[in-house]
Design goal:
Length: about 110
């Protein structure tokens, strides 16, 4: 087992975590390429099973952060999509505090004006 390559991976995983927490996608892209190269080197020398528990914990932690970042991006995309759609109902509060709905009719076609 080559300890320097595992030390490099350990430092890289810390950098990756920081980039994920700050949403630095450019840095994440660069770090991902470095991580792939390190993992390929570890696999090529046959020492993948020698990865210690703290490094494995960091790999799992960062995978969870990736999943959460993707979920956040999906939520933003859904929200943007929802705001782009015209509303069919307008809800507002009356003076007594109750809500009232007003259905809005949207034209189905284009309207030509002179």
């Amino acid at each position: 087992m080559k300890q320097p390559i595992f030390d490099q991976l350990n430092r890289l995983l810390d950098k990756e975590r920081t980039a994920l927490l700050h949403g630095d996608f450019e840095k994440i892209s660069t770090l991902l390429k470095e991580k792939e190269a390190l993992l390929e080197a570890i696999s090529a020398e046959g020492s993948a099973r020698d990865v210690d528990a703290p490094v494995m914990a960091k790999l799992r932690r960062n995978l969870t952060l990736y999943d959460e970042a993707l979920a956040g991006l999906r939520a933003v995309a859904e929200r943007i999509g929802a705001t782009a759609q015209p509303r069919s109902e307008l809800r507002f509060y009356r003076q007594d505090g109750d809500t009232t709905s007003l259905t809005v009719q949207t034209p189905k076609g284009l309207e030509k004006r002179a």
